[in-house]
Specification:
Strand content of chain B: 15-25%
Helix content of chain A: 25-40%
Mean pLDDT of chain A: 89
Low-confidence stretches of chain B: none
Strand order of the largest sheet of chain B: 2-3-10-5-7-6
Distance between the termini of chain A: 26 Å
Helix content of chain B: 55-70%
Number of helices of chain B: 14
Low-confidence stretches of chain A: 1-5, 237-242
CATH class of chain A: Alpha Beta
Structural class of chain A: alpha/beta
Oligomer: heterodimer
Number of domains of chain B: 2
CATH superfamily of chain A: P-loop containing nucleotide triphosphate hydrolases
Number of domains of chain A: 1
Mean pLDDT of chain B: 87
Radius of gyration of chain B: 33 Å
Strand order of the largest sheet of chain A: 6-7-8-3-9-10
Order of helices and strands of chain B: HHEHHEEEHEHHEEEEEHEHEHHHHH
Radius of gyration of chain A: 18 Å
CATH topology of chain A: Rossmann fold
Largest sheet of chain B: 6 strands, mixed, barrel
């Protein structure tokens, strides 16, 4: 990792402090790492480790108290709310634990949404959304509403929505947390496929087993990075999973 | 390029906003209706009141058309006075008579028709048939030209009727019906009737004119004013109707004032001792009356619209809370604050506009019912409808601002976490 030009994400001495009831909570306390184009990185930690805060900062939903965060070459600090919104729209594809699909919109409508905020003309929007749904294998479910889809299908819709705008990174927050293990496995396979195609993926989880599937894993504890290396290292040998 | 992108984006967001709003509206029909019920009632009330007023306007204007629009009615009496003192003053004025008529006929250069109007109420009889309380009008051949209707059969008075003081009479439509029931109008001509005990010969029958302000315009009989003065008393003050081209009406007024002051010998320092009445005065007085009615309608409308607006605000606030997660998702996907603001404003305006449209529909229906059930021709013009819907939308917009602003201010992280 010599040149930072290829690094999509560069985080340097990142701090994020909250004040809760007069007490300062150091959710992130000097976090530094960088992620290169095409990497699949897991961020793992217990609840309270700061991983959610980190995900919010990486996703440009939250801004750091101090330190720098460069996303695809642009420094996030000092950006206006509108600029952050535009950055999220262009650079980040979110995949949430609870899918976060709009209940009244069809799968196609949900996937088209990021393109609406980019001003893509309707016909083009539709074509791109159809292509994205096809890429996650949901061509024949495009006109179903979320409540007519299974959990796995919903998460696929969400992934299609994350992919449709060709963002720099996919940011997945416990993407298998609300799925049974078989369906979760399906979703992990999908991520592996996307990784092979060259997508950059950041996956936030508290499950060591899931982090072990990531080629690289960053472990957080109390707002600090405590380890950064191949995901397999995280798992004790006895429960080591075989990567597919 | 950047500008074009912004326009594209704005367009996409607006059409998306409308689509979402429509989906929500249809998705929760009952709730949307209850949300906008205040607006519905407000607009309905206003549209109904406006329909009634406009109906009144129409019937009033068609009635008032019985007075010549381009005619000045010269009289010692004023149509509109204020108070008792004014009445005494008018009563003490000199009567209007032949001298004034002749002066106007001779000197008023702008007049195209001058007709005296002596009036008395009396009975007409034929054998044992009677028409009671008939307005007997003594006038001349120019009477019709002052806007007093037209003849249905026979002829109107001619100059020789007046010059020779002939006992000729033109019957109003109701009087002819009363005295000659079942007759063809042509058969009525040349028959004799008794007007206040004197025998007159029917020369014509007037076209039916209907009502004017509660007065039956067909219960009259027109005789030469010379005969009127002879038989019904020359001491009565008469009115003189003077018509001109529409453009000359105010010049005619000036001219008449000058002529009348001279002939009635009004000293320069004194006020006029006569009145020049015109149709317009009726309209003006009427408009004052309906103006205050309009004021009431607008007041009621405003109050109900405000109440309706508060209802919309209330539901929109609930809706923002319910859809907090949705707002978070949209923000995460790249919606700006302004996008969220726009979306909720579109929704509140749309819901209010639909309410306005429903209210207008019900109001128009009520107007139709009123038009069928009463003599009022309740009607509404297009601008009232557009105003009703447009104003509702504005109410929705205004009362939607606060909820929309709250939605736009939500922190995306918090919103996404909202249960």
């Amino acid at each position: 990792m010599s040149t930072s030009a290829k690094h999509l994400i560069v985080v340097d001495r990142l701090h994020r402090h909250y004040e809760v009831g007069g007490e300062v909570v150091r959710a992130l306390d000097g976090v530094s790492f960088s992620i290169a184009q095409g990497e699949w990185v897991g961020i793992i930690g217990q609840s309270g480790s700061g991983k959610s805060t980190l995900m919010n900062v990486l996703g440009c939903l939250d801004t750091p108290s101090s330190g720098t965060y460069r996303l695809n070459g642009s420094d996030v600090r000092g950006l206006s709310d509108d600029e952050l919104a535009d950055l999220r729209n262009k650079e980040i594809g979110f995949v949430f634990q609870t899918f976060q699909l709009l209940p009244r919109a069809t799968a196609l409508g949900n996937v088209m949404l990021p393109l609406v905020y980019r001003g893509v003309p309707k016909r083009l929007r539709r074509a791109q959304a159809e292509a994205a749904l096809a890429s996650v294998g949901l061509t024949n479910r495009m006109h179903h509403r979320p409540n007519e889809l299974s959990g796995g299908q919903r998460q696929r819709v969400a992934i299609a929505r994350a992919l449709v705008g060709s963002p720099s990174i996919l940011l997945a927050d416990e993407p298998t947390g609300n799925l049974d293990s078989a369906t979760g496995e399906e979703i992990i396979r999908l991520f592996q496929e996307l990784h092979r195609k060259g997508h950059t993926i950041v996956l936030v989880t508290h499950e060591p087993k899931l982090a072990a599937r990531c080629p690289r894993a960053i472990r957080l504890m109390d707002g600090h990075v405590v380890s950064d290396g191949p995901g397999l290292q995280l798992v004790p040998n006895s429960v080591q999973a075989v990567p597919a | 390029m950047k500008r074009l992108a912004a326009i594209r984006r704005g367009f996409a967001e607006t059409s998306e906003g409308v689509q979402i709003a429509v989906e929500n509206l249809i998705g929760a029909r009952l709730r949307s209706f209850l949300t906008t019920l205040g607006i519905v009632i407000g607009v309905m009330t206003v549209i109904t009141i406006v329909a009634i007023i406009q109906g009144l306007d129409k019937s009033f204007q068609s009635q008032i058309a019985n007075l010549g629009a381009h005619t000045l009615y010269v009289s010692k009496w004023a149509w509109f006075t204020n108070g008792r003192d004014a009445w005494w003053e008018l009563r003490n004025r000199k009567d209007m008579g032949k001298r004034e008529l002749e002066a106007i006929e001779r000197q008023a250069s702008l007049a195209i028709a001058v007709a005296p109007m002596g009036m008395i109420e009396s009975d007409l009889k034929r054998d044992d048939l009677e028409a009671p309380n008939v307005q007997i009008i003594g006038t001349n051949a120019q009477y019709l030209a002052t806007g007093a209707g037209s003849v249905a059969a026979g002829r109107f008075l001619v100059e020789t009727d007046v010059d020779l003081t002939r006992n000729s009479v033109v019957l109003g439509a109701d009087v002819a019906d009363r005295l000659f029931p079942g007759f063809d109008l042509e058969q009525v001509l040349n028959r004799k009737v008794q007007v206040n005990g004197k025998v007159f010969q029917v020369v014509g029958v007037m076209e039916r004119r209907g009502q004017m302000l509660g007065m039956n315009m067909d219960s009259n009989a027109v005789v030469p004013y010379t005969a009127f003065l002879r038989d019904f008393g020359g001491k009565r003050s008469m009115n003189i109707a003077v018509s001109s081209d529409p453009d000359n009406l105010s010049s005619l007024e000036d001219e008449l004032v000058e002529i009348l002051r001279r002939v009635r010998k009004v000293p320069a320092e004194k006020k006029d001792d006569f009145s020049l009445n015109r149709q317009e005065q009726f309209l003006r007085t009427y408009k004052q009356l309906t103006g205050s009615l309009y004021g009431v309608a607008v007041g009621v409308g405003l109050i109900t619209l405000i109440v309706g607006g508060i209802g919309i605000m209330n539901i929109m606030l609930v809706s923002v809370t319910e859809r907090t997660r949705e707002i978070g998702v949209r923000r995460a996907l790249g919606a700006r604050r302004s996008t969220i603001l726009l979306q909720f404003l579109v929704e509140s305006s749309l819901v209010a506009a639909v309410g306005g449209a429903i209210g207008t529909g019900i109001g128009l229906g009520a107007a139709q019912v009123i038009a069928l059930a009463t003599p009022l021709a309740a009607t509404v013009n297009g601008s009232a409808i557009a105003l009703g819907i447009g104003f509702s939308a504005i109410v929705g917009l205004v009362f939607g601002i606060w909820p929309a602003w709250r939605a736009a201010r939500l922190d995306p992280v918090e919103a996404l976490r909202h249960e």
